[in-house]
Amino acid sequence: MPPLSKDVVIVGSGPAGSAYARTIRREWPEARILMVEAGPQILPELGAHLDNIADPEERSALEVKAQGGDRNRRPSISKEEWEARRAGGFDASMLRRSGLFIANEADPSESLFAGFSAANVGGMGTKWSTGCPSPSMAERVPFIAADALEAALCEAEGLLGVHKDPRSGDQTAIKLRERLGAAFNEGRSPERRVRPMPMAVTPTAEGVTFHGTDVIIADMIGEPEDSFVIMAETVCRRIIHENGKATGVELCRAGTDESWVVNAATVVVACDALHTPQLLHASGIRPEALGRHINDHYIVSQIAEMHDEPPMKAMSWIPATDEFPFSVTIAPTSLATMPKPPELSGQPVGMGVFCPSDISAENRVLFDETRRDWRGLPAISIRWKQSAGDLERLDKAKATGLRIAEIIGRPAPGFATIVLPVGSSLHYQGTVRMGETDDGASVCDRNSRVWGFDNLYVAGNGVIPTMTATNPTLYTVALATFGAREIAHARRTV
């Protein structure tokens, strides 16, 4: 039997890979697309969001299936760990999430990196918060024309189904935004003022329906298999290439060694910021910058107490600007994993002050050829260390969180301001970063095409080359549209 042949093979089924598929389909209707996913299909609907499942036990059981080769439940937080979290200390329960990647474990107070990656059809698109804020000008790629990137961000909003104010009738949230605006809006352009958090949701009478990658690929789901198909529980072990041209991929069923080859005119690697460089490394594609510059924003977590009535339901956002480097999300919280202290009488409101960290080529992902992970690829480890600039910004972020808590009501009694380990946001970036020129400091060009290759592209948060504080999903999907259009326009004319 001859090898299967496709016009485009996309490795990874998360938001970036799905955006490639949808954009290519729109620009190149006859393209034959194969999407490869190492994890299982955990829901009947391809890539649907888990938070739409009302039963918490059912949802929890499905989340376990998305944890890759280590499918164990995360143990519940202990009393001692909860007390440590409340007091602003180190909470070891955060390191027990299955599938976790940990760096510098011996020094958790300063240089810990704790990341996680889902493995299921839809990738992290089945689990994400659905927040879709847009990056500030300082966070945007400087070598992509401003108008072109703005148009791509608008296109990404359409792909994700973004709603700018999904709980528009929440009067308590509106009043809070007015108070926050009085403190933070001066000098800001209208689009960077305090506002509702844009979210990839559909408002309903009961609340909202969360969007997963099912919304991105939409009616592609019903296409004939020869036109579009997602191969679940299928691992890509290697990109086959010769003389700067990818010719196919070597695939196998997860947990087996039996492999086969799919010929491909174009390959897009959209695993995530950890597994995309892993696959390139395993394939012998090892540019100098591969895996380097791993970067994430810290989350400074602050619980506030609100006495406004009725209780708030909506999420609010204080955008980052050139002068204000933090992206702040504010939303009701249930404190479901922690006992509610008796001195807390009002509504608990959670706050995340997202704080950028410095970019360094020495912060990197490493691959161990002597050990294999559950995919059969070189095992991943992470080297990361915070900088003096990180510490300075964190002090300012903590002060900002306390200031906002006073505007909300007051800092919740019994809860300290805490800094989550970098990586906890799951927004890590930079490991396959784009660059303006092939100078050894980047892996791909502005269209995410790997330097030195004609038809190999990378996708996901890993391509972002800048310091960021803002949730990167919208940004990542926007950048994916550049590469997808280049593929469609180049290949359909061949």
From TrEMBL:
Top-level taxon: Bacteria
Record flagged with keyword Transport: no
Positions of the Glucose-methanol-choline oxidoreductase C-terminal domain: 362-480
Ranges where the Glucose-methanol-choline oxidoreductase N-terminal domain occurs: 225-298
Keywords: FAD, Flavoprotein, Oxidoreductase
Gene Ontology MF, one: flavin adenine dinucleotide binding
Co-factor(s): FAD
Record has Protease as a keyword: no
Alphabetical list of PANTHER family matching this protein: PYRANOSE 2-OXIDASE (PTHR42784:SF1)
Stated family: Belongs to the GMC oxidoreductase family.
Protein name: Pyranose oxidase
Biological source species: Devosia pacifica
Lineage, highest ranks first: Bacteria, Pseudomonadati, Pseudomonadota, Alphaproteobacteria, Hyphomicrobiales
